[in-house]
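User: C-alpha cells for this one?
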Amino acid sequence: QRANQRGVKIMAGYWIPHNSDFNFTGGPTDPRRVGMINDFVAYVNALRADPNYSAVLMIGLSNENNTHWCEWANQPFVCTPCDPNVQARGFYNLVNDMASQAKAGDPDPRPIIVVISNLGDIGNAARLANDASLPNIDAWGVNTYQGSSFNTLFADYALRSQKPLVMTEYGMDAWNEDPTPTA
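Assistant:
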C-alpha cells in the first residue's frame, strides 16, 4: 500500500525451495508438480486481487535454485543419486509452465522472471534454460557479486539470451571484502 501511495514499483517474489526434487517422474500431471503450479497461480491471483496490485512491476520466481540442484538428495541419512541435468530440465520446464498458467486469462499480466545465481544456466538448451524453451518467462534476474565491476557480464549475457536482464542482487559480498572480481 505504501509503495503504491508513493508511486514505487516492486517485484513480488515467490520462493521455490532449494531442496525440491524437480525430477517429476509422473510427468506433467505429477501431483508434486501440479501442486507447485497451483500454489504459484493462487499466489499470483492473490496479488491481482489486492487493491494495490498496480504497485507490482513484476514477479520473481525462485532465488538461485541453479546452485542447489541436488540438495534434496544429500540430506542426512539419504543416499539418493541425483542428476543435476535432470533437475535443471525439470525446474526450467516447471517455471515456464508456472508462468504460463499464472498469466492465463489475465488481461494485464505482470512480467515473470526467473532469478538465478550469476549467469548460471542461461542459454543452456540441454537444460531447457534457453529463450526458445522458456517462452513464458519474460526476463532473467541475476544475483551476481563480482566486486567493484560487472566485468564482461553484460557481453556474456548478450551471447546467451535476448530477454531483458534484471539485476536482482549485485556488488561485493560483505562476507568477502576482497575487491578483486570473481567469476
